[in-house]
Amino acid sequence: MHKWFYYEILSHTADFKVRFFGKNLNEFCKAIVSFFQNEIYIIENDSVDIYSTNLINNEENLSYFIVEILNEIIYFGEKNFTIMKIEEKTSNNFELSFCRHDFLEFKIELKAATYHNLKMIGNLQNIQLEIVFDL
């Protein structure tokens, strides 16, 4: 477990499993950003510009919405964008901020966040989410 980064890489036979956690939703979002910046991206050039997009939570289940956020981050990574910040604007509206790079490499290429073995524990004050990514 990374004390500062609020995530833990777990053992999985074929894919990539991670546990994210936070004392609140803001800390939880920072854990997601830290995971991508430290475990996924290899950034060797400066950012070219910044882009933000909003996601609205239409899901009844917060864990399903988090899968949507993770898949949005993976999609933008394929277009040379790195996640820099996830901010809750309202209870169902999140802003994702990205930096675009001329070139982006990956330590690990994630195809998608999945619902397989998706497990969420806690509430908005103590969140833990275990998720499996397809490689």
Structure description:
- With 135 residues, this protein is of the alpha+beta class.
- The protein has a single domain (7-134), classed as Archease, Possible Chaperone, Chain: A, domain 1 (3-Layer(bab) Sandwich), CATH 3.55.10.
- Helix content is 24%, strand content 44%.
- Strands 1, 2, 8, 9 and 10 form a 5-stranded antiparallel β-sheet that branches. A 3-stranded antiparallel β-sheet has the order 4-6-5. A two-stranded antiparallel sheet has the order 3-7.
- A hairpin with a 2-residue loop joins strand 5 and strand 6.
A few lines on this structure:
The chain is built from 2 helices and 10 strands; from the N terminus they run E-E-H-E-E-H-E-E-E-E-E-E. It is of the alpha+beta class.
Examine the coordinates and then state which fold CATH places here, giving the name of the CATH topology: Archease, Possible Chaperone, Chain: A, domain 1
CATH homologous superfamily annotation: Archease domain
Quickly name the level 1 CATH class.
Answer: Alpha Beta
Distance between the termini: 21 Å
Q: If you average the pLDDT, what whole number results?
A: 91
* CATH architecture assignment name: 3-Layer(bab) Sandwich
State the domain count: 1
> Compute the gyration radius: what is it?
14 Å
Name the structural class. alpha+beta
Q: Uncertain regions: pLDDT < 50 for 5+ in a row?
A: none
